[in-house]
Structure formats: structure tokens, C-alpha cells
């Protein structure tokens, strides 16, 4: 075990692992910032103002075309799927929302949870480096000359503490970025939920004339009157 720990210290295996995890975390942060702040985000108020205006004017096809131009944005995609079912019953509109929301959710949550894991793992790796450095240092001091003990102890503690410092320098920015990215992700989910419910409310509140036999004909003919007319005998012929 002592040889393994000494190998870790001599060849800086722990430092290499921390740096590798840090590069991985930086890549994840860059990818999520690009996705959440640029690729999947849009000026919500301006977008919804135009969509709602078209819906109020009963220009559903124009609204669908407008959403299709921004289909890569989760909000536009969900609104488009809802509008495509605007001529259906209320249950179909609600089902369209559920399906569309489940389709865009993976894009919003992709790899974000890994940042929290990275921050915890890199801290533990740094702690491992600290413990290994202290064990090797104390072992060296116990067998060293009196004149060298202080130097070896200081050197071992310095190596151990550098592992902790390196790990924290990766973990702290990662957790900081994770907090901001998760906040942005929740904001996007909130916008999808809020504006999709608004558009559904508008669609459901529109008045539709349901099919009925009474509205098909211009004159109010019912079955009772039709039966009476059918059973009325023809007028007698005058000789």
C-alpha cells in the first residue's frame, strides 16, 4: 500500500486525475452555456407576443409557420405542437403539450447533473492525494535522520496540501457554474409551462359551433313535425 501511495505522489497521478476531471468539467460547462443561453433560448416575450397576436386573429397556420422557423427552441417547438392540435378536442391539446414537453426535456437537462458529480468526485480525489501525501511524509520522517525530518515533513505536507488546493480550484468554479446553469434550466422549464398553459387557455376559450341537426337546415325541422307531415292524408280530388 505504501508503494502505491508513493507511486501516486512521485508520478503525480492524483494531480493528473484532477486536471483531467477539470478539463472534462470545463467542456461540460461550455456545452451547457452554449445550449441553455444561446441554442435553446429565445426572446420569450417578443416571441409570444407575435404568436398570441396571430392566435387572437385566428391565423393558426401563420402561427405554426412562425414557430417552425424557431423549431429548435424548446418553447417554440412546444407551442407549435399545441397549435397543430388547435382544431381538436381539449384532451388532444393537453396530450400534445405532455408529449412535446417530454420531447424537449432531455435537451434541457442533458449532462447538467454531471457537473455536480464532477465537483464531488474531484474533491474526493484531492482528499485522497492529501491523505497519501501525509502518510508518505510521516513514513519518511519516521526513518529519516534527525537533521532531515523537518525538511521531509514540510515537503510531504506541501505535496499533500497542493492536491487539496488543486482539487478545490476545480470544484469551486464547477459548483458555481452548476448553480447558474441549473437556474437557467429551471427558468426555461418555467417559461415553457407558463406560456404553453396561456396558449392552451386561449385555444380552449375560443367559441366553436358544435355540429347538430338543428343547425344544418335553415328551417327548424324536427322529427315530430316531419312525422306529422308524412302522416297527413292527401287532399281529396273534386269530381
Quickly list its features.
single chain, 239 residues, mainly alpha
Please give the share of residues in helix: over 70%
Q: What is the chain-wise order of helices and strands?
A: HHHHHHHHHH
The Rg value, from CA coordinates, equals 35 Å
Mean pLDDT: 84
Main sheet makeup: none
User: What is the straight-line distance between the termini?
Assistant: 130 Å
Overall geometry comes to rod-shaped
- Secondary structure category: mainly alpha
Number of strands: 0
Residue stretches low in confidence (pLDDT < 50, at least 5 long) are 208-219
Counting structural domains, the number is 1
Number of helices: 10
β-strand amount = under 5%
Description of the molecule:
The chain has 239 residues and is mostly helical. The protein has one domain. 81% of the residues lie in helices and 0% in strands. The protein is built from ten helices and no strands. Helix 5 runs parallel beside helix 8 (146-205) and helix 6 runs antiparallel to helix 8. The protein is rod-shaped, with a radius of gyration of 35 Å. The relative contact order is 0.13.
